[in-house]
Specification:
The protein is mainly alpha-helical. It folds into three domains: about 30 residues; about 190 residues, Hypothetical protein af1432 (Orthogonal Bundle); about 60 residues, Molybdopterin biosynthesis moea protein, domain 2 (Alpha-Beta Complex). Helices cover about 55% and strands about 5% of the residues. A hairpin with a 5-residue loop joins strand 3 and strand 4. The longest helix has about 40 residues. It binds fe (ii) ion (FE2) (2 copies). One fe (ii) ion (FE2) binds next to loops.
Length: about 300
């Protein structure tokens, strides 16, 4: 091969590398948009919670996954599966979504128990979501085999699904509104200080903690329970030491905690009481404030 041919080959390789990079970038972007779309669709069915269920499950599951030493790729799957875990409930009637499983009639429970399977069917449409789909499919499996849909046991359960199962159970116990009050206002208690947030959730918190600990090693993975309850307890302790203030959106910083829930004009939850502000949330609050969907100053605990 002469010098000219060598140069031409090198140019071709560079061109192909550039093309591969572009394709990778395009794929990453379309994957990100697909995730955003699915997440916003899933969150449309969260009217029966006092805070965003899918966001909470995703964020706290990520914290647990990191503490358990999962690698970056696995943590990303936990994050995505947490956001999408209940996407299979999309077509369910409001009356069913409002109930806790132990309040459902047999026929309702049968339908409810199909949501991990429907979730998997939705996500399987995109082959790049294969692992996320498997996690969603398993998020109601319990380590003693009493879960559903496949009664998997112990190590048969994907570790990410085992994490989501615990965080999901906790959030249902602490933030789902009792179905006896389906028309209760979206904001269950007006927060006038960090202590009132803690007081208003104290009984539910104690019940949830007792339940999780009593089922550790039986329904739930012991290590996950240990790490998750440590995270939640530390978070509540730090909430008690915070100061309440109204802060302009451009002055918000990650780590501040939302002190009252904010809803869009359509009634969709934008930011929920007790939620920690992230860079991403700050950006979306900023955009929404520009179109008047949220006030320019937000009540936070610092
Ligand atoms: Fe679920
Ligand atoms: Fe859930």
């Amino acid at each position: 091969m002469n010098e000219e041919e060598k140069q031409s080959l090198e140019n071709k390789i560079k061109e192909l590398e550039g093309l591969a990079e572009d394709l990778h970038e395009q794929f990453a972007q379309s994957f990100f948009h697909c995730m955003q779309l699915l997440t916003s669709i899933a969150s449309l069915r969260e009217f029966y919670y006092d805070s965003s269920h899918s966001r909470f499950v995703s964020e706290k599951s990520v914290e647990v996954a990191k503490k358990l030493g999962m690698n970056e790729a696995d943590v990303y799957e936990v994050q995505a599966a947490g956001l999408l875990h209940d996407i299979g409930k999309l077509g369910f009637k409001d009356g069913l979504l409002a109930k806790f499983p132990n309040e459902m009639k047999e026929s309702e429970y049968k339908q409810y128990a199909t949501h991990p399977v429907i979730g998997k069917q939705i996500l399987d449409k995109n082959p790049s979501l294969k692992t996320i789909s498997e996690i969603v499919h398993q998020h109601h499996e319990k380590i003693d085999g009493s879960g559903f849909p496949n009664h998997l046991m112990g190590k048969e359960i994907n570790p990410a699904a085992a994490i989501i199962c615990v965080v999901d159970t906790y959030h249902n116990m602490i933030a789902k509104r009792p179905s006896s009050k389906p028309n209760s206002p979206l904001v269950s208690s007006l927060v006038i200080g960090s202590n009132s947030y803690l007081e208003s959730t104290n009984t539910r918190f104690a019940t949830a903690m007792n339940y999780l600990h009593s089922k550790s090693g039986n329904l739930f993975d012991t290590k996950v329970i240990e790490v998750f309850t440590d995270i939640i307890k530390a978070e509540r302790q730090s909430l008690g030491k915070r100061v309440l203030m109204r802060v302009a959106i451009d002055k918000l910083s990650p780590g501040m905690v939302i002190a009252e829930s904010y809803y869009s004009s359509f009634g969709l939850l934008i930011a929920s009481q007790g939620e920690t502000i992230t860079e991403e949330m700050k950006r979306s609050l900023f955009k929404l404030s520009e179109v008047g969907e949220v006030p320019s100053r937000i009540l936070v605990m610092k």
